[in-house]
Amino acid sequence: MRAGEAVLECVFEVDVNGILKVTATEKTSGRSANITISNSVGKLSSAEIDKMVEDAAKFKSSDEAFTKKFESRQQLESYISRVEEIVSDPTLSLKLKRNQKEKIESALSDAMAQLEIEDSSADDLKKKELALKRVVTKAMSTR
Predict the structure, then answer these.
(1) Residue 99 pLDDT > 60, yes or no?
(2) Separation of alpha carbons 106 and 122, rounded Å
(3) By the 8 A CB rule, do 46 and 98 touch?
């Protein structure tokens, strides 16, 4: 060893989690330093992951209720659209008796009013759809 040159001993350790620990010791003076390097940039901690899983479980039932309500609303809107086509079709409309057409239009109006209520439950929407279907089915079968 020449004068002014340092002799370093470096030890690299990688644990099972991929964390690198480096220890450097200068041999002549005995001084050492260490650093721990983890690849945590952009990764979630286990506490953050646990919190996300807990939140997902907590909101699962409200998410399912929202999905059920959304699907019921879509089904009712679709059926209303089909009934409106039937009522506005001159050939089908002429085949209906006057009071049958009025009953369909009344049930149609009720169903549309239910759609306007923002906090309608999925069950309320399904009930209106079934009521409309009953009126339309009865009117079509007694032409």
Answers:
(1) yes
(2) 21
(3) no
